[in-house]
Amino acid sequence: MKIKKIVFSLIILIICTVIGVFYYAFKVEPYRLVVNEHQVNNTNSKENLKIVQLSDLHIKKDFNADRLDKVIQKTNEQNPDFIIFSGDLYDNYSQYNENEAVISKLKSLKAKYGKIAIWGNRDYGGGAVKEYANIMAESDFSLLRNENQVFTLDNGKKILFTGLDDALLGNPQFPSPNQMAETSYDILLTHEPDEVSQYQNKGYELILSGHSHGGQINVPLIPQIQKKATALMSHANNYTGGLYQLGANEKLYVNTGIGTTHLSARFGVAPEIAVLTF
């Protein structure tokens, strides 16, 4: 009789645990938001530059424009010099869109020098390709598609951003590297992280990407689940999230994103705002 009670209790415990995990994965973690801070390089300089990177909002019915309020608040609290959006604004534009509300929210993001965006694969599909450029322009973002943009800082130094087109649905091509000769720091923006193998050793100190979502599901002690999940994203198998040292003077940061796709769940990969200081 005692054994039956123990077995029954264990079954109830397992069922409750499974229900709890599913509830957390679908109803709690996707709406959390963590700020991950990274010092990109070691320097004794008092003149730090701060970039806030946002990626993969995937706005949809269960993560609409109102959900951006927390993103905007936490981003503006960082007092960034630059804000970078690494692509994938909507999850599926044909199924859900609310342009006016999104523009109003994104426009309230504040950066000292500028706000820059690039194209993601979701910014092409579902009719988004016809609207994305206008949305970002009205939100005061410079949308780069195989283009360079140079900013002059208060100290007179110049920083270069190169934004490439999406690798899956676009046509990424490098613009002229001539401007690198006059800049102190060069940053490459590309949506899919695994494309970095083609972009190394081109003179960029930092590469920023997104797309991976970190797989969205990362169960401790079972890395195979995250590996299979990131495989669904395509072009995100080798670099799934965080800061990578590619070479002596070259780093890659893969932002695991804010929204969800395929499955409206996250477990072990909370939505992130990345703060990169160098």
From TrEMBL:
Parts of the chain that traverse the membrane: 7-26
InterPro entries: Calcineurin-like_PHP, Metallo-depent_PP-like, Metallophosphoesterase_sf
Entry EC number(s): 3.1.4.53
GO molecular function, one term: 3',5'-cyclic-AMP phosphodiesterase activity
GO CC annotation terms, alphabetical: membrane
GO biological process: lipid A biosynthetic process
Residues annotated as domain Calcineurin-like phosphoesterase: 49-214
Pfam families associated with the record: Metallophos
UniProt keyword annotations, A-Z: Hydrolase, Membrane, Transmembrane, Transmembrane helix
The keyword Hydrolase is assigned to this record: yes
CDD domains: MPP_YkuE_C (cd07385)
Domain of life: Bacteria
Name of the molecule in the record: 3',5'-cyclic adenosine monophosphate phosphodiesterase CpdA
